[in-house]
Amino acid sequence: MTRLLFALLFVGGVARALDVRFLAWDDQVAAREVVASSGKSGGKSIADLHPLKRTEAVSVTPVEGQLLLRTPDRTVEDDKPAEMSVALPEAFHRPLVILLPDPKSPTGLRGFALNDSPEGFTWGTFRMVNATPKPLNLIFGKKRLRLPTGWKPVDVDPDGETSLPVGLALSEDPSTPLYTSRWSASPDIRRLVFIMPGTDPRLGPLAMKIIPEDRRLVVSE
User: Fold this and answer.
1) Which residues of the chain have pLDDT under 70?
2) Alpha carbon distance 213, 75 (integer Å)
3) Domain topology for 18-115
4) Is the pTM of this model over 0.85?
């Protein structure tokens, strides 16, 4: 019986530990206490949450493809910490979980994961995530790309250029620029870029949250 149970678990897939890093959306989220759990009890507190840099990796074992997070500062019935789950697809070998505020959630948070492995999100590239409600057209050097809604990442390779013109416009009105600038690129730095609706009319209709990572400062992959 023991051998049969082991065989069934093996065929069905044994849960594996993953090194997961986290990124807080803003200072309010960064100040929260969040615990990553591999089961129904215990867990590991996520240290040094920050809105502009990834945390150190936390080793956790997802349960049925879901990462369980608890918030000891928010409780539900029986004074238990509120819980939430974040889907971690099996193909994600180095997940980055973005923690965002969500007043409707018992935890006050929601999260989603990106595959943050340098094998896919390579050094020297830009990963663009459209966090606005409308599709955008992107001019990036000589490239012309479409950024869909739904927080779907689009990776852009500067092809060796070190300074590139960048422009953004609504796909429905591509002739009206919403953002223009020049961005620098480096083969040692990859940049995760969230494009958001602007909150300050003086700065334009779009705002950027840019999270750089320098491989010269990374101890190991």
Assistant:
1) 1-15, 38-42, 219-221
2) 35
3) Immunoglobulin-like (2.60.40)
4) yes
